[in-house]
Design brief:
This protein is α+β, with helices and mostly antiparallel strands. The chain folds into four domains: about 5-170 and about 255-305, no CATH class; about 180-245, no CATH class; about 320-380, no CATH class; about 380-425. It is about 45% helix and about 20% strand. The protein contains 14 helices and 15 strands. It has a four-stranded antiparallel β-sheet. The radius of gyration is 39 Å and the shape is elongated.
Length: about 425
């Protein structure tokens, strides 16, 4: 059964709500628009890859059509970059981003972005076993047919964007912008009032108003003449006027705080915070939605989508590889373990470096090998070490005897050949 109150709720908010902040007004605030565009453009440039979990390692799946849809051509009027930017903006501003997955049998033909203002929902009345359908232009769809990314959701059906969640601070910032616009339109002229020693006729009042209107219209008419008995009294500045610039800076900082954008973005530390709390936070939710809606049921156990954030963390590559180097040299990690963390194919090197670069230890056979001296020693006690040494000595002795036997045979053959040559000469 469909709960009709769920459909009526947005209409009630629209008619009864006291806050008239809209998405269009919010995006006129420079601090908000700049921060959201920065997040959207960064996310859109992150490539998405498909991986498969193997028994020993994770392998990248090459040539899958779904990867092409997510990174290049979506089959829609928007390309992949545009689609992801629009998705991020809907997610942050409206609380939900929606992409229709155009399945044909077991293949996806296209990905169709749907604007959030065209999407509504109808849910059942059960607060425990919640179910709902997605409504687009009067048609019903199942939630599984969409890639849906929700912000601050409590029911898994609809999210809450910053336009609704933080409407007060956005309204203050927007009204400050409008107030500043009013000052610019008046040419920066001071506010005040005109005092008259005697009563003015309606005609004189109308002429005075018209002259004052021209003065504040920021055009060439910047002089007004007051007749005898008229005096202009300047109004004192309000606290808002005196602290306008300070308020703008404070509001901009609070808006960045809402989005998680640091003040020191552009620095190494600021970029780390931006990537961690702004970019990766959305990408994590986006990958979960992709795995839910773009994988077949038989694939969900072994396959998964993941964002390739290498380009974003390229600045930290030196530190990351430095940590790997130290772990390898101290024996905490093996080369193949490092390669596995980087989603690279192992080389089959099962040695651990022990301090010196020319000493190798095989943990399976417990043998320490020194290439410079061509010696191997077995770890596990003096007896095992002596046995290994005796085996080496025995091997060397056999090799020496073999070499001597070969040499004697060659000498005897040479002597016999010389005797035969002498006999022939005689």
């Amino acid at each position: 059964m469909i709960d009709e109150s769920a459909i009526a709720e947005p209409l009630l908010k629209a008619f009864l709500g006291n806050d008239d902040m809209t998405r269009e007004k919010a995006m006129q605030i420079p601090a908000l628009a700049g921060a959201i565009n920065e997040i959207a453009e960064t996310v859109a440039n992150v490539p998405i890859k498909l991986y498969k979990r193997g028994k020993k390692r994770v392998e990248e799946v090459k040539g899958d059509w779904r990867v092409h849809l997510l990174n290049e051509d979506t089959g829609d009027t928007l390309d992949a970059n545009m689609m992801k930017q629009a998705l991020v903006k809907d997610y942050l501003l409206d609380g939900s981003g929606n992409i229709y997955v155009d399945w044909m049998d077991n293949e996806i033909r296209s990905l169709r972005y749907v604007q959030s203002n065209h999407v509504s929902y109808a849910q059942n009345a059960d607060v425990i076993f919640k179910e709902y359908v997605v409504l687009v232009q009067g048609k019903r769809y199942f939630p599984e047919q969409f890639i849906r990314v929700l912000r601050s959701t409590r029911d898994g059906m609809k999210g809450i964007g910053i336009v609704e969640e933080n409407s007060k601070i956005l309204s203050v910032s927007y009204n400050s912008l409008k107030y500043e616009e009013g000052l610019v339109k008046t040419g920066g002229n001071k506010k005040g009032f005109v005092k008259s020693a005697k009563n003015l006729t309606q005609e004189a009042i109308d002429k005075l108003k018209a002259a004052w209107r021209k003065l504040y219209s920021n055009n060439t008419e910047n002089v007004i003449i007051l007749n005898n008995g008229l005096e202009f009294q300047e109004a004192s500045n309000t606290s808002v006027e005196m602290q306008l610039n300070e308020n703008k800076q404070t509001n901009a900082k609070e808006i960045r705080t809402i989005l998680g954008v640091p003040d020191n973005i552009g620095t190494e530390q600021g970029d780390k915070v931006f990537i961690k709390y702004c970019v990766n936070a959305f990408l994590s939710a986006f990958m979960v939605a992709l795995n839910k809606s773009m994988l077949l049921e038989a694939e969900k156990e072994d396959y998964f989508f993941a964002a390739d954030t290498y380009e974003l963390t390229k600045g930290d590559a030196d530190k990351r590889f430095g940590a790997y180097k130290e772990a390898i040299e101290t024996g905490w990690m093996q080369v193949d373990e490092v390669r596995e963390k980087e989603n690279m194919e192992p080389l089959g090197l099962e040695f651990i470096k022990l301090g010196l670069q020319d000493v190798l230890y095989d943990p399976k056979t417990k043998v320490v090998y020194t290439p410079n001296t061509n010696q191997s020693n077995k770890i596990g006690g003096e007896k095992e070490g002596q046995e290994l040494k005796l085996e080496q000595m025995e091997t060397e002795k056999k090799s020496s005897l073999t070499d001597m036997s070969t040499l004697q045979t060659e000498t005897a053959d040479q002597s016999q050949t010389e005797k035969e040559d002498i006999s022939l000469k005689e």
